[in-house]
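Pilot study result, target chain (135 residues):
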Amino acid sequence: MNFFVGFISDLVLNILSRIKYSPPSIRSLYTYFKHYDSAILPAINAGITVISVLIPVMIVSYIIFGFATPVNKKQLLLLILLSIPFGYVADVIIYKYHIFGNKLDPFYEIAGAGFWGAMSLIFSIIVSWQLLKIA
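Predicted structure:
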């Protein structure tokens, strides 16, 4: 589920990056998206990135708290709190080591590295949890 949330979120960001009235940080993502022939590959990259960061979070959560997937709001909150440093560090690594090349540099110059990586992981966890609850 988290892969698909990351995938769809990236497609939405791709569209928003082309809209004149989007915030500058989102518009700066256009320099990343325009290098691809299709919106699919960057969306796949986003989904893989979410999963690559979430798996270690789930492993650590299982070791510390005894669960990998939250089943109630308390567990969801614990997983979110645990995911913040993982998402932050992953975003900084993506930036510092140019995991996706230099195409994201304009975004990082405006938004900075770390915070939005953590927020995107939290968003994925919350949306996936909600979707699984209603499924």
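One observation from the pilot: Helices lie at 2-16, 24-27, 30-33, 40-65, 73-96, 105-111, 115-134. A full batch analysis is planned for the follow-on phase.
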